[in-house]
Design a protein that fits this description.
With 108 residues, the chain is mainly α. It contains four helices and no strands.
Length: 108
């Protein structure tokens, strides 16, 4: 019984101690995080202010579409196949892939 009371007392002390520390430290941590984000945003704004455009950090996100347009300039009638199904997939048709069917009668 004495062990149980000690455990409960220690548990609540640790719980409320951690809760108190979070209340003290989280506002400081969030303030530092927001200051860092504001600094990055201000730095990007100054870099982009010279030409009036937004500067992408990791390249232009629309480059992938430009590559597709470059490849789409092929001769008319040329076909590009990205996926060829396996023989197993070709053989399974109809009820083999549809699952289980249950017969029922309509009651009027």
């Amino acid at each position: 019984m004495e062990f149980l009371l000690k455990f409960i007392l220690i548990f609540f002390l640790v719980f409320y101690g951690v809760k108190f520390l979070f209340r003290l430290l989280m506002p400081i941590a969030l303030r530092k995080l927001s200051e860092r984000l504001m600094g990055k945003a201000a730095q990007q704004a100054q870099q982009g202010a010279g030409d009036g455009r937004y500067q992408y950090q990791q390249g232009n996100p629309f480059d992938q579409f430009k590559q597709q347009q470059e490849h789409s300039g092929r001769d008319n009638g040329e076909i590009r196949v990205d996926y060829v199904p396996t023989e197993e997939a070709k053989q399974r048709k109809g009820t083999q892939t549809a699952g289980e069917f249950v017969d029922f009668e309509e009651i009027k």
